[in-house]
Design brief:
The complex is a heterotrimer of chains A (283), B (296) and C (276).
Chain A lengths: L5 E12 L2 E13 L4 E5 L6 H8 L7 E9 L2 E2 L5 H11 E4 L13 H12 L4 H14 L5 H5 L8 H14 L4 E5 L7 H18 L2 E6 L2 H7 L2 E6 L2 E6 L9 H9 L17 H10 L1
Parallel strand pairs in A: 3-8, 3-9, 6-7, 7-8
Antiparallel strand pairs in A: 1-2, 1-4, 4-5, 9-10
Chain B lengths: L5 H14 L3 H28 L1 H4 L31 H37 L1 H16 L2 H12 L3 H28 L2 H9 L3 H37 L11 H13 L4 H31 L1
Chain C lengths: L8 E10 L8 E11 L4 E5 L6 H9 L6 E6 L2 E2 L7 H8 L2 E4 L13 H12 L6 H14 L16 H13 L5 E5 L7 H17 L3 E6 L2 H7 L2 E6 L2 E7 H6 L4 H8 L17
Parallel strand pairs in C: 3-8, 3-9, 6-7, 7-8
Antiparallel strand pairs in C: 1-2, 1-4, 4-5, 9-10
Helix pairs in contact in C: 3-4, 3-5, 4-5, 5-6
The chains are: A alpha/beta (283), B mainly alpha (296), C alpha/beta (276).
Chain lengths: 283, 296, 276
């Protein structure tokens, strides 16, 4: 078996403030192979977004991070500034929940898309625009030449998220980190965006780390799932959705109302911090 | 359904928990090291001024003409002025008025300013337009001019100047508070209170005011520094506090004459004390402003 | 639901036009929307962003005025908007509102007990002494699953789910006939969402109350509502009993909404290229 593209081994992140400290990531271990999609699922406060920030080393100085994070065999925590910049801008592409917060509102869509290519790769401006047009077309943006001249506020949320996907694909990364990319979108737009992300990723053989609170959505778009609770991965594998074995996953799956049938009463999660600690002690 | 980042919530929570830990820690968190230093210095000055009758070594108005313009000595630590009065004692007594005058100005301006701001924010429409216009007009006139106008009408004196400056300082508080109150007014919790059938006055005082209170305090303290300077300037011009009352602005003026005769201590000491007071107040005001912003 | 009872809320041809900014065209947010809400019924208004569903809800409580149409609550017209304090108080006892975001809909400087007590004092009959208003507030908090110890807490000391319980308690304190729930569980985690949905069902089991449930989430709507109307671009495109509509969606928009909901065996589907 070849070495995984991304490997996290016993990653811990502790928030240190004057008032005390809080361990927010508690021994996270996971692997993503070349071209593989992993869904990282958890509720708010479970540490899933923090994990992506740890992977890109975007945790501020108030965090103490230990453990091993390897990308393509190189230690991310040991990278110097130049290597880290290359890693963030070329190896990993990021898609966020709120695309509007991650584009400069006074720059045209075209500038946003070509900026990285022109500045980091020394690609000619014309060539960069040509590539952008091709990609926008591939992610289903109609009339891409016109879009390049528009400003972000002229685009709907779903369309802007497609532009974000295009911008990530333009830099030809090996891994896409998508942090709740569809949470702010309507269901129909969500279906679109996930379909596009899935299809483009497969076509290019890119690995994907998909962060979401939605187990069903993750199951539909990923090869494997990892379920987080209180800064830990409680269960991971390809079986998680169809045959969950951890009580938290089982209960989480049961608590979601179904569109097909109406429950008399929704089962309420009994799993809490206490049971979590108990289970840890037993294991 | 954008959810706030849980990490930032965790940070905010830890900060808030600490804030409740006690007055001392709370103050340290909001003011920082520099702000705490400023607060400590200001506290010493305020306490000394409050207890002037006990702290001051001499009667500030007692002239010892034989000892006039003597330099620092064990008897008179900062020497004496042209009339032989103890400069240190006059500084301590002078700080009283130099703090009390602007304090009164800001108190009046804050009360009136906050009421106007809340009224404008709640009523909106024409009320808001009129109040905003009024505030803009007041804001365009330098504070000291109001002091001078008041003097022209009612004659020199501390009360007159305080009255004039109080009007001048209304917009300093009101403009900022109106902006903050408008933001709060559009928050769902205010809509919720409105839908509950709470009265406009009730919403303004139980919902909006408590939420803009940190901004009110910050803005009041920040303005205090300017008021100290304005009031001292009016006194220096001889239009505010009248001799022989000890006042820092007046001391700079009388010390100015002594300085020309080779005795600079009075002017320098009084001037320095004004600068120190203003510095302290400004630093504290700045810190309060940024912590009020970060609470939002 | 059958028509055996008089409807509480009757909306006929609701219309709302927002003036466009500067030279933009005015925006028709809601057009020709009609529905009835009966006692002890949960009616869901389903739609995506920009469908006008929230505007309808806001018109019902007077947060927005009507551009056209007729809106009555227990036969009394609300088309003119709410201006006088006495009207607002009286109408608050008919219709209450729970906002989506439990963080900004509670005053952070008021203790939980005071938030609910304020509502009790405003709406209980005025003979009650202050002490009894407190007792009533504590009882209502208890009924939404928040024990006495919560009364002295500030909102920021509570979780999102607990805050939403406080918002529900505040609404219940007015003893209304209708509660408008505007995406009231959308911002909550799945585990909390289930608790709140159960709570809402419990409340309906205990007292006669109607919900106008605004949501984009068909699974949640399926769980809680009796009837639903589907809105798209300000107009009603589909309506009927929730179970029927979701089991056999006929209208293409309802079908596409339903098809987009992730569920076992589901795959995301890419629609045609997007023009807007």
């Amino acid at each position: 078996m070849t070495a995984p593209l991304l490997r996290l081994d016993d990653v811990r992140a502790t928030l240190r403030l004057k008032g005390g400290e809080q361990t927010l990531l508690d021994g996270v271990s996971l692997e993503i192979g070349e071209g593989e999609a992993l869904g990282l699922v958890g509720e708010s406060g479970s540490g899933k977004s923090l994990t992506t920030r740890a992977i890109t080393r975007m945790l501020g100085p108030e965090f103490a991070v230990t453990g091993e994070i390897e990308f393509g065999g190189a230690s991310v925590l040991g990278m110097n500034a130049a290597k880290l910049r290359r890693y963030r801008s070329q190896d990993v592409g990021m898609i966020f929940q709120d695309p509007r917060a991650h584009v400069n509102p006074v720059h045209r869509v075209g500038d946003f898309l070509t900026e990285a290519l022109v500045q980091n790769r020394g690609v000619d401006r014309r060539e960069a625009e040509r590539r952008a047009v091709v990609l926008l077309d591939e992610v289903g943006v109609r009339n891409p030449e016109h879009r390049l001249r528009q400003y972000p506020h002229e685009l709907s949320g779903g369309l802007l998220q497609r532009v974000m996907i295009a911008s990530v694909l333009l830099t030809e990364p090996r891994l896409i980190l998508a942090d709740e990319p569809t949470t702010a979108l309507d269901v129909t737009a969500q279906s679109d965006v996930m379909a596009i992300l899935d299809e483009q990723r497969r076509a290019r053989g890119l690995a994907l780390l998909f962060i979401t609170h939605d187990l069903e959505l993750a199951a539909a778009c990923c090869d494997r799932l990892a379920v987080m609770y209180a800064g830990e991965i409680v269960e991971q594998g390809a079986h998680v959705y169809d045959a969950p074995s951890h009580p938290y996953t089982v209960e989480l799956l049961g608590a979601r109302p179904s569109i097909d049938e109406r429950a008399d009463r929704l089962p309420v999660l009994r799993y809490n911090r206490e049971t979590h600690e108990l289970m840890k002690a037993e294991a | 359904m954008t959810t706030p980042s849980t990490t930032s919530l965790a940070v905010a929570r830890v900060t808030r928990e600490r804030r409740r830990a006690g007055v001392v820690t709370a103050t340290r968190d909001r003011l920082g090291v520099l702000g705490c230093t400023a607060a400590a210095v200001l506290l010493v000055i305020v306490v000394a001024a409050l207890f002037a009758p006990i702290v001051a070594p001499y009667d500030p108005d007692f002239p010892d003409l034989l000892a006039a313009l003597s330099g620092p000595s064990p008897a008179h630590l900062l020497g004496t002025d042209a009339l032989g009065r103890d400069i240190l004692s006059r500084l301590i007594w002078g700080a009283r008025i130099t703090l009390a005058g602007p304090g009164l100005v800001i108190l009046i301006a804050t009360v009136v300013g906050v009421l106007l701001a809340l009224l404008a924010a709640w009523r909106g429409g024409r009320t808001d337009t009129v109040i905003t216009w009024l505030l803009d007009v007041l804001f365009a006139v330098p504070g000291i001019v109001f002091g001078l106008i008041a003097v022209a009408i009612w004659g020199p004196g501390l009360g007159t100047v305080v009255a004039g400056l109080s009007i001048a300082y209304i917009p300093y508080v009101a403009r900022v508070v109106r902006g903050a109150a408008l933001r709060e007014r559009n928050m769902p919790y205010v809509s919720a209170a409105w839908l509950q059938g709470q009265s406009g006055t009730g919403i303004t005082f139980t919902q909006v005011l408590p939420n803009v209170q940190p901004i009110v305090v910050a803005q009041a303290v920040s303005s205090l520094g300017f008021a100290v300077i304005d009031l001292a300037a009016v006194s220096f011009l001889g239009l505010g506090v009248q001799p022989p009352t000890a006042d820092l602005g007046l001391m700079v003026k009388s010390g100015f004459d002594s300085m020309l005769r080779g005795h600079p201590i009075e002017a320098i000491a009084a001037g320095t004390l004004i600068v120190v007071i203003v510095w302290c107040v400004t630093v504290i005001g700045d810190r309060l402003t940024s912590s009020a912003r970060s609470l939002r | 639901m059958t028509d055996r009872t008089e409807p509480i809320v009757v909306a006929r041809g609701l219309r709302k036009v927002f003036p466009g900014r500067a030279k933009d065209e005015p925006i028709v947010a809601v057009d020709e929307v009609s529905f009835e809400l009966h006692p002890d019924e949960c009616l869901a208004i389903v739609g995506e962003s920009g469908s006008g569903k929230t505007t309808v809800a806001r018109m019902l409580v007077g947060l927005e005025t009507l551009t056209g149409g007729e809106l009555t609550v227990r036969g009394e017209s609300r088309a003119g908007g709410v201006k006088r304090l006495a009207d607002r108080r009286r109408w608050a006892r008919e219709v209450q509102y729970v906002f989506q975001d439990p963080y900004s809909s509670l005053n952070g400087r008021q203790r939980v007990g005071d938030i609910v007590e304020t509502s009790v004092v405003l709406h209980a009959n005025r003979s009650g002494r202050r002490g009894s208003a407190r007792t009533a507030a504590l009882e209502i908090l208890e009924s939404v699953g928040l024990g006495e110890q919560f009364a002295s807490k500030y909102p920021h000391q509570l979780s999102g789910g607990q805050r939403q319980r406080v918002a529900i308690a505040r609404a219940l304190a007015a003893d209304p006939a209708v509660i408008v729930l505007d995406e009231a569980v959308a911002a909550l985690d799945v585990s909390i969402q289930a608790q709140i949905l159960n709570l809402l069902a419990d409340i309906r089991a205990e007292r006669e109350i109607s919900y106008l449930f605004i949501s984009h989430d068909l699974a949640v709507v399926n769980q809680i509502s009796d009837r639903m109307i589907v809105m798209e671009h300000g107009i009603v495109v589909d309506s009927g009993e929730t179970a029927d509509l979701l089991a056999n969606p006929v209208h293409p928009y309802t079908r596409s909404l339903r098809a987009a909901v992730p569920r076992p065996g589901w795959r995301p589907v890419r629609r045609d290229r997007l023009a807007s």
